[in-house]
Specification:
Helix content is 32%, strand content 26%. The strands form three sheets. Strands 3, 4, 5, 6, 7, 9, 13, 16, 19, 20 and 21 form an eleven-stranded mixed beta sheet that branches. The protein has a nine-stranded antiparallel beta sheet with strand order 8-10-11-12-22-18-17-14-15. With 553 residues, the chain is α+β, with helices and mostly antiparallel strands. Helix 4 crosses helix 5, helix 5 runs parallel beside helix 12 (519-546) and helix 10 packs parallel to helix 12. The protein is elongated and about 105 Å long. The longest helix has 28 residues, at 519-546.
């Protein structure tokens, strides 16, 4: 790569050998992983094992690829026999994805490519035993990739070149993450899945569809940016695969799309300036790669102690991060104390009710007075039924005399809306809430209630939701609907008969609507309704005792 240019396509610099291996033909080799997804190395290649506390898998010695990463702590489902989550897969598997490191040269030096078979210093990579991959180009250059892994999901990678010639060799070490397929995403607006990175002082998120459309318009390049440090890769709902350059190193980061096959997406990071390897000397560049779960505390630890700029932003807190992130921290703390995220949600709800108690108290007192004023308002409407202007005037006089604000009844709902959606996002996106159990039949607070009233809660061996998702109605949504119904009974009915009829159906509408939401959110809403009913009942009782004349006509 000359003059800071970005990695080119393999299709432009390579040919396919008889074994299906990509081999460089030009003087300047491109990153071996770039280009068409149609040409791939075989699965059965020499490998070294990855054996750590939280990661398993292997590294391909053909092309030096991290292409087999398994997360030891997470399974595909709550079934104990379900497969472990596989984050990176070899090229001939269903969802091929890998991390790779290499070099390019603008001086004609022979560099390793996808056909290179590396030699390993050990048969396994462990926490206590780093591994060095080495390859001699036969022309005086020895390339080494030293790999070390920490106790979690972070690899430290040192790319070293030893120059035994009498001339200076100029090289650019690069790193990349690639997916040779188009992943199926959840498609929710509250969640970003796709290409992600911290580049040039800000976060750059690009969806797969945008990368495809932009790449097709700009010769495969969906985004490019220059920065010092940062990180870039691919994010899923709970997982992240990213490369992290030296945080003091100016780099060029590029998001790419390549057509053909299932489509291919690539994020590559290249130093802004080339390395000059002196005669009979060496040059080394150290970077990192992350492949694992987006655990909030772990990402923050890497950010603070590892110096990775804004690495915790890999968790999609959204535009209202100043609400969602503190909510999660509260829930996580309660979970550490109570030992259950469901109990943490209940405790969190009590705290939220406590914070907004004065405002809600004012609103509920006003609604209680409104309910007690019902007979007087009915009498005014009857007296001035033929004069709407006089009717409204007398009602407003009554409100003023009794110090009642009819609009205050909206406050509890307005307060609950941002809390509800922030909590929904926390439950939906954080790995800590994934497969977190409650009590009874709730084994995953981030999933919908598994019970269904339409098959008698499992007594009938049939799943009606295969006909339509609206035929799934769990027990917790029913509990929520019941609590909403009783709460509504404590509120004064709207003066408009049409509105009053509509409000009667609101508990039913919300019951079916929330049936498709995570169980943790439905439990929050049910518990919040229960606390609200208790608060309103006490306030109404106090209002009757203190103002018994309100209800008299």
């Amino acid at each position: 790569i000359a003059n800071g240019a970005q990695p080119a396509s393999v299709a432009e610099t390579s040919q396919t050998t008889g074994t299906g291996i990509v081999a460089a033909t030009g003087a300047t080799a491109a990153p071996p992983a770039a280009g068409s997804a149609a040409v791939q190395p075989p699965r059965l290649v020499p490998r070294i094992k990855i054996d750590s506390a939280h990661l398993g898998g292997s590294i391909s010695l053909l092309g030096a690829r991290l292409d087999d990463i398994v997360l030891n702590d997470y399974r595909d489902s709550i079934d104990k026999d379900s497969p472990l989550v596989r984050l990176l897969e070899p090229s001939q598997d269903k969802e091929p994805a890998f991390i790779q490191f290499g070099w390019t040269s603008d001086t004609g030096a022979k560099v390793p490519d996808n056909a290179t078979l590396w030699t390993a210093s050990a048969s396994a990579l462990t926490r206590a035993q780093p591994v060095t991959l080495s390859w001699d180009n036969g022309a005086g250059l020895t390339f080494e990739i030293a790999l070390a892994i920490d106790d979690n999901y972070m690899f430290t990678v040192s790319q070293r070149v030893r120059n035994a010639t009498d001339a200076v060799v100029t090289l650019k070490p690069w790193s990349l993450v690639r997916r040779d397929y188009t992943p199926e995403t959840a498609g929710y607006s509250v969640l970003h899945e796709g290409l992600i990175g911290w580049v040039d002082g800000s976060q750059h998120d690009v969806t797969y569809s945008s990368a495809k459309s932009d790449g097709e318009k700009h010769e495969g390049v969906a985004f490019t940016g220059a920065s010092t440090g940062g990180w870039a890769g691919f994010t899923d709902k709970y997982w992240l695969a990213a490369v992290i350059p030296d945080q003091a190193q100016p780099v060029n980061t590029t998001y790419r799309y390549f057509a053909g096959g299932k489509g291919a997406y690539q994020v590559d990071v290249v130093p802004a300036t080339a390395q000059a390897v002196p005669p009979h000397g060496e040059a080394v560049l150290t970077s990192r790669a992350f492949a694992g779960a987006k655990i909030v505390k772990l990402l923050k630890q890497y950010e603070e102690t590892g110096g990775i700029t804004h690495f915790s932003y890999a968790v999609d807190w959204g535009w209202f991060f100043f609400i969602t992130k503190p909510f999660f921290l509260m829930l996580d703390w309660f979970n550490s104390v109570l030992g259950n995220f469901g109990l943490a949600i209940l405790a969190f709800t009590i705290c939220v009710k406590g914070v907004f108690f004065p405002l809600a108290n004012y609103s509920y007192r006003s609604m209680s007075k409104m309910k007690l004023l019902g007979p007087k308002m009915a009498a005014i409407k009857e007296q001035f039924k033929d004069d709407q202007a006089k009717q409204q005037s007398e009602i407003m006089k009554l409100y003023k005399a009794e110090k009642v604000n009819p609009a205050s009844g909206c406050l509890p709902m307005l307060i609950q809306i941002p809390v509800f959606f922030s909590l929904y996002k926390v439950i939906f996106i954080t790995i800590e809430m994934r497969q977190a159990p409650f009590y009874g039949w709730i084994h995953d607070l981030s999933a919908i209630d598994p019970t269904n009233v339409f098959n008698a809660f499992g007594l009938i061996p049939f799943d009606p939701s295969i006909i339509t998702p609206y035929l799934h109605l769990g027990l917790w949504p029913l509990i929520m609907g019941i609590t909403m119904f009783f709460q509504q009974k404590l509120n004064p009915p709207p003066p408009d008969p049409v509105q009053a009829k509509l409000f009667q159906f609101m508990p039913i509408i919300f019951t079916f609507m929330l049936a498709r939401f995570p169980a943790g959110l439905v439990i929050y809403w049910s518990w919040n309704n229960t606390l609200t009913i208790a608060q309103q009942w006490l306030i109404m009782r106090q209002t009757r005792l203190s103002r018994p004349g309100l209800a008299r006509t």
